[in-house]
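Spend some time on the protein that follows and explain the fold to me:
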Amino acid sequence: MQERYRIRWTKVDRTRFVSARDLTSVWERALRRADLPIAYSEGFTPHAKVSFPDALPVGVSSTGEYAELTFAAPIDPTPDLGALSATLPAGMDITTYLRVPDGAPKLAKMLQVTLWELSWPAADPAAASELTELLQRRSDELLASQHAEVIRHRPDGDRTIDVRPALLTLAAATRHGPEGPGARTVLRAVLRNDGPTVRPTDLHAALTRDDLAAPSAVLRVAQGTPVDDGLAEALSGEVEPLVPDDVDAEAA
């Protein structure tokens, strides 16, 4: 009897440079090392039934990656998926799982929106506050607009992208370190996953007037369904807030 599980996992640190092309082989090796009864497709080139709903740009970190795994026999999810997580490369960790009941909607339908976080380097509180205010003004202007076209530069030619249809909401905030004078500016955005893909780089292009440095880090926080103050995470239903805590946990 086959069982399906949907998982949320991270892709941070060095693993953010693993390409979508190499991702399947990384997971197949981990499944073999964990000795789990993953199901395989039929045909001349069978492959493990592990599916990923979308691809993350190389170099971008994420705490909101998702996958669906089909097992050929029942598993004990807490220890078995824990063992799988332990065999994955450092930076890839399974954080949440959900057994898929019969008749459940496709995983992609549960991932309606993405919460992105763009962050800028730590600075003194006054400079961070000034950048936060600038980003919030630009965000308000962008949300009030009907269209926001930017040019995406590609090797095969430039392409014009309208950022506005994908954008649900934006908020800038200043994060203070738990100790010391440093503070970081962060911008969180909820973007639709349906329709043409809008990337964080497109969002930055829509906000800058050639006066806004590119963010030093980009993080896909989570995916799920939109709510007023952020999004409801796809597997747990917990709300990931649009406005983050003002204490920088990463600096703790």
Residues 113-251 form one domain.
